Amino acid sequence: MTTSFNAPGPASEPGPASEPGPARPGRKLGPIAATVGSSHRAWLEPTRDHYLASGRTLSDLSTSIPLAKSKLSELLRGVGHYPRWEVIHRLAAELHIPSWPLYRLWRQAALDAGKSREWVHRSSDGAIALATESRAPLEHGALRSIVEDGYRRYAEVFLHGEVLDAVVEDTFAILWLTFYDALASPDIRRYAWNILRATVHAKADHRDQRPVLGDAAFDTVALRAQTCPEGQAAQMAESLELFTAISKLPPAQLDVTVLRRVCGFPHAKISDLLGIPLAAVRSDERHAKRFLDDTIELPPQTGGPTP
């Protein structure tokens, strides 16, 4: 499961990288290969956006980066061998891409592609120190401080362990790479949530092309309210049935239902996390409840916060 996000402009010239660059001679860059996975695509798409917005040509870049024009084309389409960081770092410098979030996403994609940690270390070749000097925009840090806990709570419904930690970090790395587009979007919170949602669902287990919520049964609001083993067992069965039904909801209704019924957030908090009006949250909840009522015998919401 993949999604597309536009990348930011150069740090010295804030602005969305989606703005068209000058016309360039030569053959048009081909699309990203269909075989490219979601973690590889997470850094490749913003990198391509920077290239397309720069107005530079592959021939021009090949004079500064130790790759032939054909190999640069393959790199930007996700074709061939997974690239070493030293090459990506040089490309980032030429295209004014913040290197630390790019390195974070490149490393995760390398591990997902089966590269060893030793290979990752060797291919970095000392460039990591330069990458870590990058600093996120102040607005990025401010937004992260507000939404990170909610993002983690949502991700915990679908993921656990190292994958959970990686997905949350990757979300903020992608947001950093595309931050000027986020600022130019109608609502930065909605833009950021779309990144989180796509990143979480790309890593979640799926059944019938729908994300599996089963692990969340161990920490629901309703289950925590049960004190005896018999009550917990009964609530567990109800929760598993409920989560199967929730997974069939449309995306917006699924998000609101997970945040409301599983995470226990009030309506106002959900509105802030999703970047949508309070009325839209309540409307999605009503439609979701109607579907769930028609699908299963819905247990009452217990112990959660008031709206």
Tell me what the structure shows.
The chain is built from 16 helices and 2 strands. It is elongated. It has 2 domains: 38-203, no CATH class; 206-295, Arc Repressor Mutant, subunit A (Orthogonal Bundle). Residues 1-18 have low confidence and may be disordered. It has helices spanning 38-54, 58-62, 69-77, 85-95, 99-112, 117-124, 128-131, 138-158, 161-177, 179-184, 188-203, 221-224, 229-246, 251-262, 267-274, 278-295; strands at 206-207, 210-211. Strands 1-2 form a two-stranded antiparallel ribbon. With 307 residues, it is mostly helical. α1 (38-54) runs antiparallel to α5 (99-112), α8 runs antiparallel to α9 and α9 runs antiparallel to α11 (188-203). A hairpin with a 2-residue loop joins β1 and β2 (210-211).
